[in-house]
Design brief:
With about 350 residues, the chain is of the alpha+beta class. About 30% of the residues lie in helices and about 20% in strands. Bound molecules: protoporphyrin IX containing FE.
Length: about 350
């Protein structure tokens, strides 16, 4: 991997942008001109070279800048990392999975050496070298999930499996689409999904949970979810709503292309070996409308998806600027097939 990492920001002056290569590999989530929630879960297998699922964890041009943004969010609000005491085995499981995958998949950037339980982790892009004893918390500068979670793009939730249910009992969450870790920690599958409209009524949550409870070690799965956001901001948490919420009112027909972003989440789920828990990853990808319309098929299709979006989904996702965006996209839709 010959990766250069961009210097860019996800707050204040918002200098984030995608290179043409990053636009090309963007996980556009719509397979047809309409969208409704579904159990869109598939095996998390490796795909084409250069694609976002070439490797187990995707490290891209935004890696260093995203990790820096994560550190700022955690410094401002330490409650973005929370973990219940019984999840320590799951924390070590997570650290092991991430270090082994990243060092195998990106050997020029990450290195893991083991002498028994004495491990050395080298993260070249972030300039980190740590020697520690696997299984001994006191040998790391912070708890294992926080330590490794700061070095992997995206949000990471650890689930405990008990009573035929999943509980969100530990997580590092700095780029969530308007849900609160401090509120959700310790909640069950049904509780944290409570605010989502329609999905429960059409049986999506019951079927997805049943599937996940049988997740096997070594056979991770994935799905895509999407929303939209104003400015390329990672930290759209309820805690900071006063900072980013009013931006929704700043969208005008002139600035849609710059301000409105499609935000796609690659969600992955892994069974963890020692704890029999689960790791849930939410890896976000942002693309501005100006970048998105460089692909004429995406422009057409997003126009149609937004036009037909169920009002309850639009409301839940906070798309108060949907109509301005549809008008702006309409010039890219000539009515011909979007296949
Ligand atoms: C086990 C790991 C998972 C966790 C921790 C999780 C967590 C969450 C959270 C916190 C929300 C936001 C709820 C709010 O507004 O407060 C959410 C939304 C949602 N989740 Fe999950 N989820 C998981 C897996 C899944 C799976 C496997 C599905 C598959 C159907 C799913 C479907 C959804 C849907 C449809 C939404 C609404 C998203 C939107 O419209 O943007 N979740 N999830």
């Amino acid at each position: 991997m010959n990766q250069t990492f961009k210097k860019e920001t996800f707050r204040d002056d918002y200098t984030f942008s995608n290179s043409p290569e990053a636009v090309k590999r963007f996980p556009f989530p719509f397979h047809e001109d309409e969208y409704m929630y579904s159990v869109n879960i598939e095996p998390h297998v490796k795909t084409a070279v250069g694609s976002i699922t070439e490797f187990t964890f995707d490290i891209d041009e935004h890696y260093v800048a995203e990790c820096e943004d994560k550190a700022i969010t955690l410094a401002n609000d330490p409650q973005r990392y929370l973990c219940l005491p019984h999840m320590m085995d799951a924390q070590w499981d997570t650290l092991e999975l991430m270090m082994e995958s990243m060092s195998n998949d990106y050997p020029e950037q990450f290195n893991l050496t083991k002498e028994g339980d004495n491990w050395t982790w080298v993260n070249k892009p972030l300039g980190i070298t740590t020697k520690f004893v696997f299984g001994d918390e006191s040998s790391l500068p912070m708890e294992p999930l926080e330590y490794i979670g700061r070095q992997v793009q995206g949000d990471w939730v650890m689930l405990d499996q008990r009573d035929n249910n999943l509980f969100a009992d530990g997580a590092i969450v700095t780029s969530q689409a308007d849900w609160s870790l401090a509120i959700d920690v310790g909640m069950s599958w049904q509780e944290w999904h409570g605010p989502v409209p329609i999905a429960n009524e059409i049986g999506v949550f019951d079927r997805a949970l049943k599937y996940l409870l049988n997740l096997q070690l070594g056979s991770p799965v994935r799905r895509l979810n999407w929303t939209m956001t104003i400015n390329p901001r990672l930290d759209t948490s309820p805690e900071n709503y006063p900072i980013w919420g009013p931006d929704r009112l700043s969208v005008t027909p002139e600035n849609v292309g710059d301000k409105v972003h499609l935000r796609v989440e690659l969600q992955t789920l892994f069974r963890l070996p020692r704890s029999n828990g689960m790791l849930f990853g939410v890896r976000g990808y942002l693309i501005s409308m100006n970048e998105l319309v460089t692909n004429p098929l995406w422009a057409k299709r997003l126009h149609r998806v937004l036009k037909g979006l169920h009002p309850e989904l639009a409301e839940y996702k906070g798309l108060s600027y949907k109509d301005i965006t549809i008008d702006w996209l309409s010039k890219y839709d000539d009515g011909t097939s979007s296949e």
